[in-house]
Design a protein that fits this description.
Low-confidence stretches: 161-176
Mean pLDDT: 84
Helix content: 55-70%
Order of helices and strands: HHEHHEEHH
Number of helices: 6
Shape: elongated
Number of strands: 3
Radius of gyration: 19 Å
Distance between the termini: 40 Å
Largest sheet: 3 strands, antiparallel
Structural class: mainly alpha
Strand content: 5-15%
């Protein structure tokens, strides 16, 4: 594949950087869509997002889940009902407050999140392997700066257990 020279730009050229980020976002979205394709017969993207939140938070109240997903509680309830029907989530009474219901993943729900995350990681690794070491270092620096500017904490390494969502959504209730 022929390599195009990067357009000449000033270091403060916001339009050129924005164009590069938009182009990269197409790659990121395409990889994300392909990783979801294997499970799309079972879950939609919003439902997967809910599974991801539950996978990192554990048992969660519906109102908290709705807040984290930035949806109305009624929307969250419909999503939960579909996930329960699919065998990916369940609900139980909160043992500390019997008036509350907690939502959590089933083993199948956890496997679904792990499958999608593993596929994304493999595809991104294949792309990164095609970069020279100096390009990788530059990409790490640039993306770290970009992520910090956006307020997004770093994603966990494959063997790390953190409060971060494996598909890229930060938990706003945790301080970074």
């Amino acid at each position: 594949m022929a390599r195009r020279a990067a357009p000449a730009m000033r270091m403060d050229d916001v339009d050129a950087v924005t164009r590069a980020v938009l182009t990269a976002s197409r790659v990121l979205v395409a990889v994300s869509a392909r990783s979801l394709a294997e499970v799309e017969d079972r879950v939609t993207l919003p439902q997967l997002r809910m599974l991801v939140v539950l996978s990192t938070r554990g048992a969660t109240k519906l109102v908290t889940l709705a807040e984290l997903l930035e949806v109305a509680p009624s929307t969250a309830m419909r999503m939960v009902d579909r996930l329960i029907a699919a065998g990916l989530a369940d609900r139980r009474v909160n043992p500390d407050n019997r008036r509350e219901t907690l939502l959590d993943l089933t083993d199948e729900g956890r496997r679904t999140v792990q499958e999608v995350t593993a596929r994304r990681r493999r595809e991104f690794a294949a792309i990164v392997e095609r970069l020279a070491p100096r390009q990788r270092a530059a990409l790490i620096a640039a993306l770290t700066d970009f992520n910090e500017a956006s307020g997004e904490p770093p994603a966990p390494l494959p063997d790390e257990e953190t409060g971060l969502h494996p598909l890229g959504w930060a938990d706003p209730t945790r301080a970074g």
